[in-house]
Amino acid sequence: DDDTEEEEKAAKRGSGPDPGHCSEEDEEADSDMEDGGKTSTKHPEDEMELEEDVEMGSETAGALRWKEGLAQKATDAYLRQQRAAPNLRKLVYGTVVAEEEEDSKDEEDELGGLFKVSRPEKNKRVGADALDCSRFQPDSNHDWDQEEMLASIIDCFVTGKWEEDK
Amino acid sequence: MEFEGCSCFRQRLVLSTVSGKRVKIRNIRSKDDSPGLRDFEASFIRLLDKVTNGTRIEINQTGTMLFYQPGLLYGGSVEHECNVQRSVGYYLEALLMLAPFMKNPLRAVLKGVTNDPTDPSVDLLKVTAPPLMKRFGIDGDSLEIKVVRRGMAPDGGGEVHFSCPVRKFLKPVQLTEPGKIKRVRGTAVAVRVSPQMANRIVDSARSILNKFIPDIYIYTDHMKGVSSGKSPGFGLVLVAETVNGTFFSAEVMSTPQGQGDQILPEDLGKKCGKLLLEEIHRGGCVDSTNQSLALLYMTLGQQDVSKVLLGPLSPYTIEFLRHIRDFFQIMFKIEPQKPGDEERTGGEKVLMTCVGVGYSNISKPLK
């Protein structure tokens, strides 16, 4: 069976921290029916995986066990990404060139060399006419009904734990 | 300086005014069905014109291009009818940035919408901005934001008084320790609806926050008659104050009449409580609404090092940092600060450091 093979494989390698992540050899072993499920789990984490690929090399995990402890794995992946410490200065100040490059794309749509097709801009240069508002929308990943979230800020209050020197 | 599009409209004009550099903004909604500047932007430009002297503004016929040559910041008594498409907070945020650098202390009367779901409301700015401004040496009795009459979206009819003293220099600041939250205050607003709405909001907000801290007091503000404006509505503003004088704030306003589904007061209270928790999770020494105000004051401070610990930078703040670089050639040092393993104090923080440009208010008269 493919299934049992998969599980054994995973056990041999030791359970990898992120099963949404799969190497080439893993994909070969997959049967067709699993492909759909696998790709859908991969998708939202694509961005993280780009970074993780470099770190973890060919480390993989069982294909069928991807459902187990998803929340825990997402948390782990999130923390790993946080630890990767992006260069904030570059993020803030270093993107000017990238923005300007996008402009040149939409100059092509011309009818008979006379009329230009004017399309509402959806993806391109969303920023140019964006709403001018200083409000910072909350992170949608934070569910404040969860006990863990509540516990994560408990020391912000005078009722929480104080540092030694105060 | 030249820009495209109407995003960050206020930032550009405010920075242009303090730096004295003229700006040209092209292609304002040039591909939109109704191109050009909107009424609220025109209203904003008129307000800038009122507080300055000698400002030159040119707008082309379709309104898709704006040329702005800033004049001197004059101040004094100003009365302005703010366009109701945006709330007074939209206009007030810019005035807060400009007010300390006027020739005469600013006394502004702003009329329009005091609370709407889009912009930070006057009530929120009233409790968060002045304490922050005091850190930079802008203090005194005359620093005040007062809601005289309330006016909900969409029709407004509210009135806000704002006065601010002028300063020759701003003090550099070192805000690195937010401190622990000692109390939560709030204002539940209800106009032209049953006063009971405010009480229902208060109860539900308390149910969220009581787990953390017992010292919660939420005022109910029910205005009647002429002071209640033209539209009905309700909402809640919550503020958490730390022992070191940092204020975290959150607010939720009801959907304006005739613009979609109404929200129940109970849900609104809960939502606002959770937003406050989110804001506390972000943390830092300045709440997310006032990040750019603090960064501007740091930039314009004396030629000395200023440090401020912030929560994650909001998209608006990131744009603001880019504009500060364009106008003042100042780049901040941005260092992520991770909380310790044992500390449960929310998310990652960012330490912002810069050396001020040594801006001095040359128009302030010597006495």
From TrEMBL, chain B:
Q: Does the keyword Transmembrane apply?
A: no
What is the annotated localization of this protein?
Nucleus, Nucleolus
* Pfam families documented for this protein: RTC, RTC_insert
Per UniProt, subunit arrangement is: Part of the small subunit (SSU) processome, composed of more than 70 proteins and the RNA chaperone small nucleolar RNA (snoRNA) U3. Interacts with BMS1.
Keyword Nucleus carried by entry: yes
Per the similarity annotation, which family is this?
Belongs to the RNA 3'-terminal cyclase family. Type 2 subfamily.
Question: What is this protein called in UniProt?
Answer: RNA 3'-terminal phosphate cyclase-like protein
What SUPFAM superfamilies does its record include? EPT/RTPC-like
Give the UniProt record's GO annotations in the biological process aspect. endonucleolytic cleavage of tricistronic rRNA transcript (SSU-rRNA, 5.8S rRNA, LSU-rRNA); ribosomal small subunit biogenesis
The GO terms this record gives for MF are:
RNA endonuclease activity
Keyword tags = Nucleus, Ribosome biogenesis
The record places domain RNA 3'-terminal phosphate cyclase at: 2-334
Q: Which InterPro entries match?
A: RNA3'-term_phos_cycl_insert, RNA3'_phos_cyclase_dom, RNA3'_phos_cyclase_dom_sf, RNA3'_term_phos_cyc, RNA3'_term_phos_cyc_type_2, RNA3'_term_phos_cycl-like_CS, RNA3'P_cycl/enolpyr_Trfase_a/b, RPTC_insert
Q: What does this protein do?
A: As part of the small subunit (SSU) processome, it plays a role in 40S-ribosomal-subunit biogenesis in the early pre-rRNA processing steps at sites A0, A1 and A2 that are required for proper maturation of the 18S RNA. Activates BMS1 by promoting GDP/GTP exchange. Does not have cyclase activity.
The record's GO CC annotations read:
nucleolus
Query: Can you give the residue ranges of the RNA 3'-terminal phosphate cyclase insert domain?
Result: 176-280
